[in-house]
Amino acid sequence: MTDTRNDSPELARMVEEIGLGKLKELSPQALEKAWAAAGRLKSEIPGEFALSDEPAHVYRAGREA
After folding, report:
1. Cα–Cα distances in Å, from 23 out to 12, 19, 31, 42?
2. pLDDT in tens, 12-62
3. Using CA of residue 41, residue 44, residue 47, residue 51, what is the dihedral sign?
4. CA nearest to 34, candidates 44, 45, 23
5. Whole-model pTM above 0.70?
């Protein structure tokens, strides 16, 4: 089995900054999997988009709402 751990300095810094040190101790694979998934989602965001491109800023509820 190959080791897929991502012990990057960026991940270690983020874990300490937001208080996830205990999670990393309890379930390092889950944290690393979430980190990788967040990176994939981030890479799918277009580089140039305006706030008005986000659906939450475009949707307008009708009077009934």
Report:
1. 12, 9, 7, 22
2. 888 889 888 888 888 888 888 988 998 999 898 877 877 777 766 656 677
3. negative
4. 23
5. no
